[in-house]
Each structure stands twice: as C-alpha cells, then as structure tokens.
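stage 2 :: seqdesign
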C-alpha cells in the first residue's frame, strides 16, 4: 500500500469526536496515511473571524483526499456563507454521492438499496440572493453544461457499480424552464447509456414513493435542493442520520463527510454515532483505490464495511441515537476488534 496524504477538517459539534475516532480506526487497521489538519467552521469563525484557515485550499489540493466532519452554518441574513458551499465551488465538487442501504433490525424498511446523486454547485444553492426592502429573491441556476455533467456522472456511476436504472427527480410541471432543462438534458445524456433504464419522478412524488416503495429506485439524480431534502428522508428510513456518509466529488478533488449536522446537543459527551463518518471514510478509500489503482485499499474498504455491518447488525453495539448506550469510542473499538479477529 502506498502512503497517502489526507487533509482533515474536524468541523463543529460532534465533528472532532467522530473524525478523531475514524482516523484512529484507519490507523489501527493499516491504512498508510499522513493526516494534515485544517481548522474551519462556526467555532473557528467565532475565535478568529475566519470561516476556514488561510491556505486551506492549497492543503486540500496537495492532498490525495479530504476527510471532513460536519460544519455548522448560521441561519438567516447577515451571516457568513457556508464553508461547504465554499469548498464545493472552489474545488469544483459538482457531484454529491449519498448511498443508502437498510440495516437489518434497525431500519424502518429492509428493502432500501439506492444512491442519491445530487448536483452540488448550482440550483438554489448557488448563493445568488437579493434583499430589497420587503422583497427577498433567491435565484435558481440551471445550466446545460452542469446538468449534463451531473447526469453523465450518475449514468457512469450506475454503469460502474452494476446498477440497472437512473431516475431523474424534478419539478418540471411547475418550474418549467429550470427543472424543464434539467429533465431535458437528462434524457439527452441517457441516449449514450442504452443498457441502463431511465425514468423520471416529480420531487413530491419521489418523497412519497421513497417511503412506500423505495425498492423501485436504484440511482436518483437530482438538482441541489431536492437531493439535500430527500437524503434526510431516506436517512430516517435507514434508522439515523448517524448511519449515513457521503462523497463530494469533482474531476480532480474529493471531500468525504457524514450527511448529518453538528449535533451540538451531543457534542463533548462521547456518545455521537461515528458510523456516518466511518462510511464516509469507506467511500474515501474506494475513491482512492479507483483513482490510484490500489487494490489493497479497496480490499481494506470492503473489510471495514463488513466489520461495521457486523458490529451494528449482529453485535448490536449501538449509540443512543439508535436506542443503545455505547459510546463513540466503544463503537470504534468494536469495529477494530472485529477487523483484527478476521
């Protein structure tokens, strides 16, 4: 195994806890890496007046990948721009990949195995807003080029992962121009992938069907806001936001993180669920393995994934969000023990 350089952003709330435990796991089970830490987030801003430390982008660009904890963003006007949006735009992380799979004995439904691929730069998260007296405007941006890029990413992901179908989520019956273009480009791109099924669903119907018949979906590609909201809905069906990780991917760089927020009420108590961060690390290892053609890293990712499943589903070592009483550290200890025993 080659030696990797990993940028690490611990983040806010429970972030430093779940990140440090995940790094400990990776180190204990043989992932050969140097970790370079970057300060950023709400607490860092309160101390320094900066949302992320100077030179952070240079560190990330020089690293092989970035592992990140949740970062809090203040609500409402007059506050700073999201660090997540800053990273996405400056690193061109146009694809947000969020896989979901049922956990036996924990999930509300046992028939979920799908991936939400969310456009990560445009839409209503473009950050183009105006406030004129009593009028507030937010501009939803949809371009042909970015839509084609995310749709092609989704089809390539499905092809590479052995999946059968890609579904576009939209609201083109109301947003006829913006979502109409997203839908149109999706079908144009689909012609290059004749072996894959493609279909569409309106976003509110998608929410209903994800609850009632999630087995109908395989890969979903969505504009920015819809993917953000639907991801939390599916996480609820899975059992907890704490069980879900994500990848933000561009052509050159990638950042990996859990999908949950800072969870301030659990911060410092040692009971935060680390699984979402571990899943993010697994996605990072698989991305590195593909990028660097490193079979040993791919094998390590699969081993960690299997160990996590055994610890959660069979040993029932669960944190309080899942009804258990295990600490963050105890969960990681069990995963490490499981890996070493095998």
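stage 2 :: out
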């Amino acid at each position: 195994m080659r030696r990797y350089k990993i940028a690490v952003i611990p983040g806010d709330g429970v972030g430093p806890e779940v990140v440090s435990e995940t790094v400990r796991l990776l180190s204990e089970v043989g992932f050969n890496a140097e970790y370079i830490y970057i300060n950023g987030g709400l607490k860092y801003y309160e101390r320094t007046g900066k949302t992320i430390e100077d030179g952070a982008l240079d560190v990330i660009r020089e690293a092989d990948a970035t592992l990140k904890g949740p970062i809090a963003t203040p609500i409402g006007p007059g506050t700073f721009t999201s660090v997540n949006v800053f990273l996405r735009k400056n690193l061109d992380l146009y694809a947000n990949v969020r896989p979901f799979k049922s956990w036996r004995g924990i999930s509300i439904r046992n028939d979920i195995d799908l991936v939400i691929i969310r456009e990560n730069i445009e839409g209503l998260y473009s950050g183009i807003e105006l406030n004129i007296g009593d009028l507030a405007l937010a501009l939803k941006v949809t371009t042909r080029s970015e839509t084609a890029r995310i749709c092609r990413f989704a089809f390539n992901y499905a092809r590479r992962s052995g999946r059968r179908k890609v579904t576009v989520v939209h609201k083109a019956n109301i947003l006829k121009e913006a979502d109409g273009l997203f839908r149109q480009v999706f079908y144009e791109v689909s012609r290059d992938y004749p072996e894959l099924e493609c279909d569409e669903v309106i976003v509110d119907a998608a929410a209903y069907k994800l609850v009632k018949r999630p087995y109908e979906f395989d890969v979903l590609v969505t504009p920015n806001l819809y993917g953000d909201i639907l991801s939390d809905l599916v996480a609820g069906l899975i059992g907890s936001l704490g069980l879900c990780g994500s990848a933000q991917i561009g052509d050159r760089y990638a950042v990996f993180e859990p999908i949950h927020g800072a969870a301030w009420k659990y911060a410092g108590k040692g009971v935060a669920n680390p699984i979402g961060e571990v899943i993010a690390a697994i996605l990072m290892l698989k991305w590195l393995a593909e990028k660097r053609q490193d079979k040993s890293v791919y094998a390590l990712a699969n081993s960690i994934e299997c160990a996590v499943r055994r610890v959660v589903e069979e040993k029932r070592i669960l944190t309080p969000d899942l009804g258990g009483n295990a600490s963050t550290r105890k969960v990681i200890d069990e995963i490490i023990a499981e890996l070493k025993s095998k």
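stage 3 :: structure notes
- The chain has a mean pLDDT of 95.
- DSSP finds eleven helices and twelve strands in the chain.
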